[in-house]
Amino acid sequence: MFQSKARITAIGSYVPERRLTNDELEKRVDTSDEWIVQRTGIKERRIAAKAEFTSDVAYKAVINLTESYHKSVEDVDMIIVCTFSPDFQTPSTASLVQAKLGIKNTGALDLNAACAGFAYGLHVANSLITSGLHKKILVIGAETLSKILDYEDRTTCILFGDGAGAVLVEYDEETPSFISYHMGSLGEKAKNLYCSNTANAMFEESITHNGKIVQNGREVYKWAVTTVPKGMKKVMEQASMPLNAVDWFVPHSANLKMIESICEKSGFPIEKTLYSLVEYGNTSAASIPLSFAIGVKEKKLKTGDTLLLYGFGGGLTHAGMLIKWSVPELAIEN
Domain Beta-ketoacyl-[acyl-carrier-protein] synthase III C-terminal: where (predicted)? Predict the structure, then answer.
């Protein structure tokens, strides 16, 4: 098994001010607060301002990180922004974040693995640092999904929200965070969750070509509740650890019913699961770091805790990893 040399040393988060409640959505589409809560667990979601984009929420998450943990990012040598709702096709959102932060000597790239993006971003950061190529990396999960939603489609508009979470990953050979991982892709089922761009067909099948998120929720649900429990098992087998050694399970916050089913099938207690969907909805690549932030705020996450993360979504892609929580107690209260 590989030996990581990378440690997560700080986290930050940001969500827009505007709240979009289930009651408000009742006025837009054929739905109700009761219907949404029973099927998804979501009560509200945050919506970015008209002139607020993914680079803005990503930047604000990093500022929260620096202020909360008294960290400098001037010497960061790589910025990875995990998103599928970038400001532009080019330049990268990471380059815009670099400019906003004023970091002079750093690489910058966007990573698109949709709702599994943050887990993939952590994997890449761990690889770059463990290899010795980099020493200090910002991994940011950020989305402004409200800008690519069809608010006449109740199958998607009730689910998604905007927000960002960031972590700082640094070289540390003595107390690394990363223990094991597992990932995969099932591109054959990509049509079940997509957002169109230049192509108007996928595998020679026509698609809805409107630049908005399209989802076959039933098929994604079936895939996730079978794939994730198997992946969790593989992560633990690679670490040679039993599942009951995990202190907290932090899955992508897609849907509470989905998370409950994953916990039931894997045999993990839902009471030891962190999620951010109740107040923020499905924030795709931002959902796991936003769950971190909630765990810190509620004083659930403790230094030394073992966390099992699992991202899953568009692609269809998935990625899980076992980490040791190594972020110190907050220097200031948020």
Answer: 236-325
